[in-house]
Amino acid sequence: MPGDGETRGEKQMERRVTSVQKSNGETSYLSTFGEASMERLLAQLCGSSAAWPLPLWEGDTTGHCFTQLVLSALPHALLAVLSACYLGTPRSPDYILPCSPGWRLRLAASFLLSVFPLLDLLPVALPPGAGPGPIGLEVLEGCVAAVAWISHSLALWVLSHSSHGHSRGPLALALVALLPAPALVLTVLWHCQRGTLLPPLLPGPVARLCLLILQLAALLAYALGWAAPGGPREPWAQEPLLPEDQEPEVAEDGESWLSHFSYAWLAPLLARGACGELQQPQDICRLPHRLHPTYLARVFQSHWQEGARLWRALYRAFGRCYLTLGLLKLVGTMLGFSGPLLLSLLVGFLEEGQEPLSHGLLYALGLASGAVLGAVLQNQYGYEVCKVKLQARGAVLNILYRKTLQLGPSRPPTGEALNLLGTDSERLLNFAGSFHEAWGLPLQLAITLYMLYQQVGVAFVGGLILALLLVPVNKVIATRIMASNQEMLRHKDARVKLVTELLSGIRVIKLCGWEQALGARVEACRARELGRLRVIKYLDAACVYLWAALPVVISIVIFITYVLMGHQLTATKVFTALALVRMLILPLNNFPWVINGLLEAKVSLDRIQLFLDLPNHNPQAYYSPDPPTEPSTVLELHGALFSWDPVGTSQETFISHLEVKKGMLVGIVGKVGCGKSSLLAAIAGELHRLRGRVVVWGLSKGFGLATQEPWIQFATIRDNILFGKTFDAQLYKEVLEACALNDDLSILPAGDQTEVGEKGMTLSGGQRARIALARAVYQEKELYLLDDPLAAVDADVANHLLHRCILGMLSHSTRLLCTHRTEYLERADVVLLMEAGRLIQAGPPSEILPLVQPVPKAWAENGQKSDSATAQSVQNPEKTKEELEEEQSTSGGLLQEESKKEGAVALHVYQAYWKAVGQGLALAILFSLLLMQATRNAADWWLSHWISQLKAENSSQEVQASTSPASTGLFSPQLLLFSPGNLYTPVFPLPKAAPNGSSDIHFYLTVYATIAGVNSLCTLLRAVLFAAGTLEAAATLHRRLLHRVLMAPVTFFNATPTGRILNRFSSDVACVDDSLPFILNILLANAAGLLGLLAVLGSGLPWLLLLLPPLSIIYYHVQRHYRASSRELRRLGSLTLSPLYTHLADTLAGLSVLRATGATYRFEEENQRLLELNQRCQFATSATMQWLDIRLQLMGAAVVSAIAGIALVQHQQGLANPGLVGLSLSYALSLTGLLSGLVSSFTQTEAMLVSVERLEEYSCDLPQEPQGQPLQLGTGWLTQGGVEFQDVVLAYRPGLPNALDGVTFCVQPGEKLGIVGRTGSGKSSLLLVLFRLLEPSSGRVLLDGVDISQLELAQLRSQLAIIPQEPFLFSGTVRENLDPRGLHKDRALWQALEQCHLSEVVWMVSWVRGAGAYLLGRGSCCVWPGLSSQMPRSCVLMRPQQVWTRRQTSCSSRPSANALPTRQC
User: Fold this and answer.
1) What is the β-pairing status of strands 665-670 and 814-818?
2) Residue among 511, 516, 491 at smallest CA distance from 1382
């Protein structure tokens, strides 16, 4: 047998040398001789023949050379590489205790295992030879083993002193360390079979056998050390992976290159995720230096200047690094074609059986190396692109916030700014992933088309023309998509803006019963948004259908053209062409998404650029650089004209001349809308200066600013007052006393450490005003701008503030006080009289105050009291001490941490999305998907049947294109693979065969075209149904969320920041609209493709299915380990995005205060801190995804390599079937790719479903107001207005004292009732019960004899009217604000406006006919506070209810206007 092999090998060698010399000469001969020498080298190393260099079996056991090289040297090499990956693991800073016994045992075993291979080399040299192999083989194996165990010992020592010392360490490392065990066992068996222990005993073999037994014992000890670590630190394995006082490790920085490629540095993070210890953003590894927001801001700012193009700055900062990644993309793309090429070469080697073994080894190694290298390069490309995206994201979000701080008076609505932050910034970054694909996919397409030309010649031109014809169609679709995208984003801005306003005024909305009306407005905006989204989705479906059906149509056109040209269809041509056409699917399918991503990025870039181009607040240009004309002057205005908009279309404020001396108290008076607040805003730089000069002394020191609508942060009272300034106990005490806050703090649960709600919602209007005043006083400025801080307090407190604060602590400062209470300006130095935006007169109080309409005597003496020192508002009905205790803990904590689910996404989330799609529609989608896959497989099967019939009929006339007997079967290697000759040999002249029977061709083409047509229809049906289903789900989930939020009680909004709710209405809804359907579509396609592939494998090659169970187990454990962290990282990412929203909204609301106090730098630092936490989550999510990808790809490469290796072994044994091996390898490539795609798409889908989970959390778990039962009473059931409380008892929660204890009283119809009492006595609790914001514990309230607990809330509140303390206006017309439900005509609206003295004002500023024509800005930012405070009174006059409630409504109005509604109504 060896002799025959040698003879056969020599003959093959002679034939090859002869042919090569004839064609290529001496150089090719030397090359072939070098290839043949590889067999000789391997034979010399193993001591075997050149024809059989690596024998698999020797006698009754495996070949020793095979054992040493494959089963020992390769696992040891893998162990060395894997151990080296962990050598850069950072040392744990708190490591003090010694290693556990398990770690020590493993270290000792590893050290011994590194020594034993070296000792094993000594007996080899002893005569008469210790066997069992040549000395060269033994030395090679021993050295590799020694190096591997030395590397492993060092890695174990490093890991034991890192955070892994608290656990067993990486599981993969321990498993790889046990891989050499089979080689040791086989070698021991060899010694036993050879009788090493039988006499005569030879010292060499005996010594080697003893060392082998010792190595096995050491390996067993290693396994015991890992399995049973022991030690006194019980339970050591359950200790937290990250101590509370320890910062997590820095990601990536300082790691070895092997750790970079394998992502070994992610092991601690993934271990924490597997143990469920990723509870907060601080548990995630810190960002690398290149991704830290501070570094990114510095790099970006060096390339950014005002007015520059954003894309240019991004390119200069990060573009060069990004473009170099194109080289990785190019190499990875080229390696993608190496798999099919090397696969065909390997099958050709197996089929021909004439090439030397070295060729087969090279093909197998090339296949494995190409797969591994391609996987690594593609993975690193994806990882580096993710890092560039994060760099650009950090820079864009930073510049957006910095621009927000620099905005001038022209500011976008909060909802639009939040969309820029959440949606547009993410869509802009899609460019990073799409740009390289935009040239990479056409390159793949071109190479594939060239290969197709090599197969079928010019017949492929017909298919190419068809593909080119779709390009203009695709362009039209892309243009429509971009236009619809722009419209959709505008509607999205309007929706988020409206939701923002709705949340800010939720209390007024509930008290007035406007939930349904405003909810309908939000739904209308959502409907317009979904209308545009529907167009986009259906156009996407059409685009995807065209490109998905294109390969099938191209195949038909190519085959028909090829036959009509007179050529014979053969299996080689058909299946090679079909495989090439299938390779077109990836570039053709992905290209529309790439173009769509680029278009979306362009749209979002334009929107962000428009925001960045808004005019800045420029103090250097706004204020004159010259000092005042006199040293004693603080403020000068000369010929200054101001306006709210840059072109002066709104009411202007003109000051011909104003000069204010140091230390003066300047009063500002005038009618509602005369421009008092505008004057203060102009001095603060918050208006556009159209002309004139503004001079302020000490401008760099800032202002003390107290606005009429106080801006309060969601923080403690102390933090609101300090506002970033160092705590000074004496100054703080004086400020509290001057602002009359001591009594308020004494009744709060935690004093000044009590947290107040967003915008101070848990405080009364008077408390908010005094805290805002205290904040301004504590800053110790030289100039104070006070916009009516006395409006929200009663006379006693106003006197206290005037004498102790304004005339007391601030007596040495310059003060401009705007107020309606002229009696408090008698001690002013100068009083300014404003009218219609003009300063008409200035002088001492004695001259100016008589010109102002006096206070009505009835109002001054017996009128309404505003707010006692500690009274609360009705809009936020007063918070008694018991209620505050109910909402806050004893530590004053009101803000609750946002809840976060843990573990896998629950089944009910999948069910919720299924129900949102609709059960019938969901089943239809699945059915069409399965039908599409079935028809696709049927088309392939029919083509195979057609070719087999042709081969049976024309076998005698077929061109002899192959010499292998195996190629004549149905499953020849060319069925699905490429042959070398077909790839590189031109097709002309094409081989001719006997003409096909026209009837047969017509029959087969008709059936094939019919099946392809059905597949095309199923593809279209599936695309349309899927788009319809995801649109229905998006609409349903948003509708349920909105309804539930509107029905939530007021206490929920008190404890929940607006940004947290807006995050769901913005980012999570956007994910459900777009991101989730995209990933879910890929998941379903992968699942259907896998089912179709398994069906083909099961029918064609059942033995290949045996690989599925172990492969599935490995894949399952890898993805499970990944998903445990992926889910939590996604949740933490959403959690850390909410504070960014809240911070941006907070900044926009308090921008004037931030600038006045010089706190912009501190707020920018806070934004960078919040951004850093969110970037942590985003980076960790991307890195873990790449961690999964590289492992899945390498496992796929390992499977293909294993099959190739087995094929070579079978070839040596003469058992290989080339056709089956080729088919196995081709399907193995497809199988691993599909499984990888399935795992990746499933984990991404699960991550996206976190958004559905968060929406469902609000849609299902939010508390709801008790709605009551509808009674058939009619719309005007409250005709008299009688109110009766019968023994009403109210407790805010069980265990607290009763806020109302058996209250009983009766108010007859037409009576006016005043309610007085100390703070906490229950005044506002009566209104809480009356409006059913809280339900009484016992007793009942009757309106006209009807028990209100039996009524629906809308039925009750629609019959009650209230004038809230704080005005609330939403964006829209005057009509929409007066009559949100659209129940009244213009005449009634004008009457209400006239009764509140607003008709003239509306006419003055309105340019369009009709009461509803004048547009109001968001939150009344474009109208003066006096007008905004009068609007709610007009709303009340539009509601002819019999029961009115009113509390503290004199904030922003002059006294005559305050008294007006009472007299007229």
Assistant:
1) parallel
2) 516
pLDDT at residue 431, as a whole number = 83
> Cis ω on the peptide bond leading into residue 625 (within 30° of 0)?
no
Using CA atoms, how far apart are residues 192 and 200, in angstroms rounded to an integer?
14
Q: How does residue 1150 score in pLDDT terms, banded at 50, 70 and 90? A: confident
User: Which helix H or strand E contains 1445, and what residues bound it?
Assistant: strand 1443-1446
Alpha helices, DSSP H only, in 161-278?
Answer: 171-177, 181-193, 203-227, 257-262, 267-274
C-alpha 629/C-alpha 507 separation (Å) is: 50
Peptide bond into 240 cis (omega under 30): no
* Three-state DSSP class for residue 652: strand
Which residues on neighbouring strands pair with residue 1443, listed in sequence order?
1360
Question: Distance (Å, rounded) from C-alpha 272 to C-alpha 283?
Answer: 8
Burial string for 312-343 (b: 16+ CB within 10 Å, else e) reads ebbeebbbeebeebeebbbebbebbbbbbbbb
Please name every residue paired with 659 in a beta bridge, in sequence order, or none if there are none: 636
State the Cα–Cα distance between residues 1188 and 181, nearest whole angstrom: 28
Contact call for residues 164 and 170 (beta carbons, < 8 A): yes
In whole angstroms, give the CA distance from residue 399 to residue 313: 11
Q: Which of 1186, 1103, 1173, 1088 is nearest to 1137 (CA)?
A: 1173
Q: Hunting for tokens 């951004």 — which residue is that?
A: 1171
Question: What single letter denotes the amino acid at residue 544?
Answer: V
DSSP H or E segment with residue 758:
none
The C-alpha atoms of residue 1171 and residue 966 are separated, in whole angstroms, by: 63
Q: Which residue has the tokens 């230390």?
A: 663
Q: How far apart are CA 404 and CA 398, in angstroms?
A: 10
Whether the model pTM is above 0.85: no
Tokens of 615: 């005019």
Asked, as a colleague might, if the bond just before 1049 is cis with ω within 30 of 0, I would say no
d(CA 1338, CA 1287): 7
- At residue 720, what is the residue type? N
At 1063-1088, the pLDDT tens digits run 888 888 888 988 889 889 888 988 88
Instruction: Report in angstroms the alpha-carbon separations of 22 from 9, 12, 25, 31, 352.
Output: 20, 16, 6, 14, 21
Name the DSSP letter for residue 726.
Answer: P
H/E run at residue 341: helix 320-352
Amino acid found at 233? R
Nearest to 1097 by CA among 1230, 936, 979, 1196: 1230
Neighbours of 897 (CB within 10 A): 8
If we measure between CA atoms, which residue out of 668, 640, 670, 635 comes closest to residue 653?
Answer: 640
Q: Which two tokens stand for residue 772?
A: 């805002």
Widest CA span in the chain: 132
Structure tokens at 1453: 């109005």
| CA-based radius of gyration for the chain | 40
Say if CB 336 and CB 374 are below 8 A apart.
yes
Question: Are the C-beta atoms of residues 1083 and 1242 closer than 8 Å to each other?
Answer: yes
Q: Return the ∠ at Cα 319 (arms to 1165 and 1140), rounded to 5°.
A: 25
Q: How far apart are CA 1288 and CA 1326, in angstroms?
A: 9
Rounded Cα–Cα distance for residues 47 and 64 (Å): 10
Cα dihedral 1192, 1195, 1197, 1200, rounded to 10, equals -130
The tens digit of pLDDT for each residue in 564-618 reads: 787 776 655 665 676 677 677 667 667 777 877 888 888 888 888 888 888 888 8
Decide: 729 and 780 in contact? Cβ < 8 Å.
no
Nearest to 1141 by CA among 1062, 1052, 1072, 1068: 1062
User: How many CB atoms within 10 Å of residue 1266?
Assistant: 10
Upstream peptide bond of 235 is cis (omega within 30 degrees of 0): yes
Element at 111 (helix H, strand E)? helix 101-120
The count of residues in the chain is 1465
